[in-house]
Amino acid sequence: MNLASAPRHEESARQPYAAVSVGPSEAGQIMRDKVLALVPLIRREAEAGEKLGAMTPAVVNALNEVGFFKITLPREYGGYGFGARDIAEVVGAAATGDGSTAWSGFVSVGLRNAFVFDEQTVSELMADAGSWVGPLMVGASVFSQIVGDARLVDGGFMVRGKWSFGSGCKHAKWAFVGIQWEEGDVPHRGIALLSRDQYEIVDDWHVMGLQGTSSNSITALDEVFVPTRRTMASAEMPIRLAKIRNRFEGVGYQTGAFGMMLTVTISNVAITLGMAKGCLQEFSHQANARKPFNLPYDTVAETPSTQVVAGRVNAMINAAETLIHGVADEVDRRAASGLDFEPREEALNTMNLVFAARLCADAIDMMQICLGSSTVTLKNPIQRFARDARVLISHGAIRQDPAAEIAGRHVLGLPPFNMFAGGLPQK
Fold first, then answer.
1. Which of 33, 42, 182, 270 would you call most buried, defined as having the most Cβ atoms within 10 angstroms of its Cβ?
2. 144-180, pLDDT tens digit by residue?
3. pLDDT of the residue at 420
4. Do the Cβ atoms of 178 and 141 come closer than 8 Å?
């Protein structure tokens, strides 16, 4: 347990941790190994996925076969209910092949949000859980500053708008979106669940990295009706997430609200870790296979400068892995003990994870620069890892300076910001 996660409040100090083994579960190891066996396929299909703007059918079907999109689905619905460490292992395994493909695992973590709704809505969502191929539900502009518009009507809301960054939308049946409305003169923020027939996918995901994530915008140009049971106020989200704790089987459903927030971040940064590992594999192979341009060595690997880079990036990746897996293990330990994190602990551990992601991205950059122009062809996985890592660490949830500022206020004893995702007030 690191210092950032050490319990500070009296109740945590009195209550011992349950005897929980550190590391992935047997089921997590099995799925991780199955995903690793798919890495050659994932890597071969990566360029085609970039052109398609989504995972290729071959990759979707192969990952679906091993249960990749059900990592956070409760066991009662045919899923795995994985905890943080298993998620890190499985998502990271996919990322050794391709970052965009692994991103769909990060998307699948959001499936847990489906269970904040009532039983009728959950039953509606889960009707296709067994047969659906790919992510069942995605999120788009859920907590963004700009969301869709809604107006109250009998039995629910009429909703319209455009929602950005709908990662996985080309594969999903449902979308979790942000909405805003007024009651009298009072503005409100909320969340709505749209079925696939209620929105269109916009062809606007033209980016430098993570091109195969189908993170397109989705839009409902005309108003669509969303019943009240498929909506909630944004401020209710943490409360409802807390209520699903221990409702289903699996470590993931024993995790507290702050532990869930950390798990989402873990699933995100595990992609950078997997990409760094995949890049190191390629770096070693290519360095041993290529001759340097203007130095008298038989291979690039024999040059001292390459050896220095290899040693440094290996240490950086190992350090990042220790940080990420350490936080993941702590999340699972607390889940098994019935404990959650305090806001201070969540902020400090989030910064640890963000720092680990930056280490991985920097390691990838170092490897590409070391090998030089041979890596820039679009068929070379290293250039894809470099582009994908750069885009991933620009994600609002894991940008280093904002995360450091939030954590730094706790370190310095200053009052924390009273907000969560998208600047919404913390209730």
1. 270
2. 889 999 999 999 999 999 999 999 999 999 999 999 9
3. 57
4. yes
Question: What is the Cα–Cα distance from 135 to 109, expressed in whole angstroms?
Answer: 10
pLDDT level of residue 422 (50, 70, 90 thresholds): very low
103-141 pLDDT, tens digit each = 988 888 888 888 999 999 999 999 988 899 999 999 999
What φ, ψ does residue 399 adopt, rounded to 5°? -70, 135
- Residues 199 and 218: beta-carbon distance below 8 Å: yes
For CATH 1.20.140.10, the residue range(s) in the chain are 1-134+234-427
Q: What is the CATH number of domain 137-233?
A: 2.40.110.10
Taking 70 as the threshold, does the pLDDT of residue 16 lie above it?
A: no
- Residues 356, 354: Cα–Cα separation, whole Å: 5
| 8 Å CB contact between 108 and 87 | no
The alpha carbons of the chain give a radius of gyration, in whole angstroms, of 22
Mean pLDDT of the chain: 92
Cα–Cα distance between 79 and 144 in angstroms, integer? 29
Q: What is the pLDDT of residues 344-363, one digit of tens each?
A: 999 999 999 999 999 999 99
* Stretch(es) of the chain classified as CATH 2.40.110.10: 137-233
**pLDDT score of 2:** 44
1-134+234-427 CATH fold = Butyryl-CoA Dehydrogenase, subunit A; domain 3 (1.20.140)
Global confidence as pTM:
0.91
